[in-house]
């Protein structure tokens, strides 16, 4: 049995693949086994997650088209921080509160998953 982590629509799954036969091509599809709910794989843990009130997380998987702020910028509640393309639509991601940008975890062209931390405001 070999174990692999694959991503389907941005969600990582741990799969086990059993080799059938001695070196000849496999004719049957491999058995896939999804991880148990609540199990965190290494691929998922590597992404920063939003947790504080000033954290701005990706609402859905997508690609960052444009970042409109930099670390140290003062922002107002409702100000556009970045543009996220998802499902062929451009979505404005706005500041949840007034404050200063303390962390910027994305750049133009980066793909993000739902819940991934993009910007922190303090």
**Largest beta sheet, briefly?**
4 strands, antiparallel
Shape: elongated
What percent of residues are in strands?
Answer: 35-45%
- The overall strand count is 10
Regarding quaternary structure, what we see is: single chain
Mean pLDDT: 81
In the CATH hierarchy, what is the class of the largest domain?
Mainly Beta
- Give the radius of gyration: 19 Å
CATH topology of the largest domain: OB fold (Dihydrolipoamide Acetyltransferase, E2P)
CATH superfamily of the largest domain: RNA polymerase II/Efflux pump adaptor protein, barrel-sandwich hybrid domain
Low-confidence stretches are 39-47
CATH architecture verdict of the largest domain: Beta Barrel
State the helical fraction: under 10%
State the separation between the terminal residues, measured CA to CA: 48 Å
**Biggest sheet strand line-up:** 3-10-8-5
Element pattern in H and E? EEHEEEEEEEE
Number of domains: 2
Structural class: mainly beta
The number of distinct helices, counting runs of at least 4 residues, comes to 1
